[in-house]
Amino acid sequence: MSFSKDIKDELSRNIPTGRHCQIAEIAAIISLCGKISVNERNQYFIKIVTENLTVARKYFILIKETFQVEIMIQVKRNSYLKKSKSYSLIIKDSAMSLQILKATKLINFQGEIEEDLSIVSNLIVQNTCCKRAFIRGAFLAAGSMSDPEKTYHFEIITTTEAKAVQLRDLIRFFEVDAKVIKRKKYYVVYVKDGAQIVDVLNIMEAHKALMDLENIRILKEMRNSINRQVNCETANISKTVTAAGKQLEDILYIRDTIGFHDLSSGLKEIAELRIEQPDASLKELGSMLSKPIGKSGVNHRLRKLSEIAESIREHKEEK
Description:
Number of domains: 2
Strand content: 5-15%
Number of strands: 8
Oligomer: single chain
Low-confidence stretches: none
Shape: rod-shaped
CATH class of the largest domain: Alpha Beta
Mean pLDDT: 87
Largest sheet: 4 strands, antiparallel
Order of helices and strands: HHEEHEEHHEEHEEHHHHH
């Protein structure tokens, strides 16, 4: 099961206790995956079409709980994708359909269908709890989330820019920086920051999914931290090995050209020790000297030897 399905399965079992929140969630589902039709006798019918069984189940429960109306259910198998099914939930009682549309503010006083009103321009989402319910319904109807093991991406698809902007503003009410982008003929409300997606899950009251995401984020951060540390240590080791190789090359060049007899006792000792211990660190070399010194002292002597080697090379080139 995908992470999106896990979230929707959890949300489908979350039935608001307040009628106002139930209506807000119904409004979101109808607004984002519903169809409202009016026949020649001015009768209204509501139809919800979804490929997600959890969405169909949640809508069915909400409608039955809130309006005690009969719903006709149709299941259709996709002819192209044999395993895929679509679920249609139809309210054929015109009077009840009209009552639902009025309650969800999807219809105005003139009897005109204005779905964009369902988001912010009416009383159903004035309460904070109803805003949460509406966002939850919107995600159930048209939302998805990527596998957080790979990337963080939360989105809800809408059919109009007005709906997208209004839904974005609803999410921003909770101080989550949601954005809108156009994708082909749709408008997508999305959040890409992992911490902010956690906040969105909290807004929708998907607490189990929230904990699962937090655990994944912690593990990813730990892995990234370990990888950074390993990369840093690898780079340091590589740098140390390269430096040690150059030091040894310079020391052997001095030995094979002018020898060590003219070097000071300190330089001679560190030169001979580096030949004997080519892989030792500066700290280790310092502790092996007859009079131990620190890393900076060892580094100073080795740098001096490199300068002598370079001087010999330049002198030979001049000749």
